[in-house]
Amino acid sequence: MNNIYDNEEFFESYSQMARSQKGLDGAGEWQTLKDLLPDFKGKRVLDLGCGYGWHCLYAADHGAASVVGVDLSEKMLEVARKKNTFSNITYLQASIDEVTFEAESFDIVISSLAIHYIADFGKLAKNIAQWLVPEGQLIFSVEHPIFTAEGSQDWSYDEAGKIAHFPVDNYFYEGKRTAHFLGSDVTKYHRTLTTYLDNLLTNGFQIKRIVEPMPPENMLDIPGMQDEMRRPMMLIVKAEKE
Amino acid sequence: MNNIYDNEEFFESYSQMARSQKGLDGAGEWQTLKDLLPDFKGKRVLDLGCGYGWHCLYAADHGAASVVGVDLSEKMLEVARKKNTFSNITYLQASIDEVTFEAESFDIVISSLAIHYIADFGKLAKNIAQWLVPEGQLIFSVEHPIFTAEGSQDWSYDEAGKIAHFPVDNYFYEGKRTAHFLGSDVTKYHRTLTTYLDNLLTNGFQIKRIVEPMPPENMLDIPGMQDEMRRPMMLIVKAEKE
Question: Where are the transmembrane segments (chains A, B) (predicted)?
Fold first, then answer.
């Protein structure tokens, strides 16, 4: 599997984004995600698609017993090992749809904006269910199915070049989409909301919360952020293993 | 509250639709909804926005102890009382956001495509939670938040007049929307997915299923039905009172 984050130019552009520069506080959805996180104290935590490791460090800072961060991109992990290191954080280079752990290895699994890169969510949900202890928590954010459906991930514009609305298309045709992001073609996988949730429910999860994060008040003056009131860009799901 | 279904012309047009003529089997989402319905045997059932009473009769036919169908439209109830009558079905003319029942009066509450006419879902969810017994079931369909967001409920067309995509706009601005349907202006209320689910969760419901019904195979040759693969038009939620 080829990883876009190991592409030099893409990586360079990504590293300039607010969410890369400022860490968690640079991400518009962080406040919403944070409110859904469980108490990390004494817990064994797995972060799938950990990137720079901001969430790993957050878990460690909040008392996690141990944290494993998995990412396919060696470039991302290099930064993580420098910037967000801590005695009980282990960074592991692996694809999140191929990595394996023993049953009941974790109390909490988190994943931030990584799962839409995975073709087979059913397989991943089944794996996570095995890795978690009973009553273990899964909290993940993904690009919203409405945001991934059409594929371009761009607005529709009127003749004057102003945003007209956001286009939805091919919603029930799931699968690969190629969007242009930070100057590169990025492959993602579109799934319906139904598919996300059914794969959790059939693998023994209870749905605890489903939240579409809104742009936070204090970021509305950032260019483009006000427009994010017009479409749901992300989905955060909190589920508990039965 | 003014009811569009008591408008002569609108009612006439509505009564010509497949879902009005053929009953449950004329509705594209019926198969999906049916699969989510619990066993009605011996249960006390409430149908909010019962319309012609097709679902009331279905519940009665499947062994419900009693069924109460509530609808604001006297015209709809007239048809219900003629077409879908049964000894233990009671039809009640009332607004579903004003009707009241005693606590724990029902085992099952159903509602088909009615709740998007209600301004305050929080109040309704709280009421339903009171009317249901512990472990009571709520199953309802609504127009999908993606379908209600922009307001026109119409596709975007290209210059040749062909469907280009479905427009989403103003997603996080909830409230009144006016769409043109069957020749009349119809007022509905847009709410995000988050708002629907949070109002259930905070009122003591567990989310059991969330399904976006796809057009059924055997209806894909009906004009326009194939296009319904391109957008999610409805949302079905199954929840259980704790």
Answer: none
pLDDT above 90 covers a percentage of chain A that reads 84
Q: For residue B171, list chain A residues with Cβ-Cβ distance below 8 A.
A: 212, 229-232
Residue B167 maps to a domain: no
User: Can you tell me the ipTM of this complex?
Assistant: 0.94
Contact A193 B193 (CB under 8 A): yes
User: Residues B84-124: pLDDT tens digits?
Assistant: 999 999 999 999 999 999 999 999 999 999 999 999 999 99
**Dihedral angle computed from the Cα positions of residues A158, A161, A163 and A167, in that order, rounded to the nearest 10 degrees:** 60
Any chain B CB within 8 A of the CB of A122? Answer: no
Contact B192 A232 (CB under 8 A): yes
In-domain check, residue B163: no
Residue A206 with chain B: CB contacts under 8 Å: 206-207
Q: Do the Cβ atoms of A172 and B214 come within 8 Å?
A: yes
Yes or no, beta carbons of B230 and A201 under 8 Å apart: no
Chain A residues whose beta carbon lies within 8 Å of the beta carbon of residue B192: 212, 232
Q: What is the pLDDT of residues A129-143, one digit of tens each?
A: 999 999 999 999 999
- Asked, for residue B53, whether it belongs to a domain, the answer is yes
Under an 8 A CB cutoff, do A197 and B210 touch?
A: yes
Q: Does B157 touch chain A (CB under 8 A)?
A: no
3-state secondary structure of B89: strand
Distance CA A3, CA A192 (A): 24
Residue B49 binned pLDDT confidence (cut-offs 50, 70, 90): very high
Question: How does the average pLDDT of chain B come out, rounded?
Answer: 94
How far is Cα A104 from Cα A106, in angstroms, rounded to an integer?
6
State how many domains chain A has.
1
Residue B185 lies in a domain: no
Three-state DSSP string of B74-138: HHHHHHHHHHCCCCCEEEEECCCCCCCCCCCCEEEEEEECCHHHCCCHHHHHHHHHHHEEEEEEE
* Domain that residue B37 falls in: 4-144+190-229+236-241
CB contact (8 A) between residue A171 and residue B230: yes
The domain that contains A57 carries what CATH number? 3.40.50.150
DSSP one-letter code for A128: H
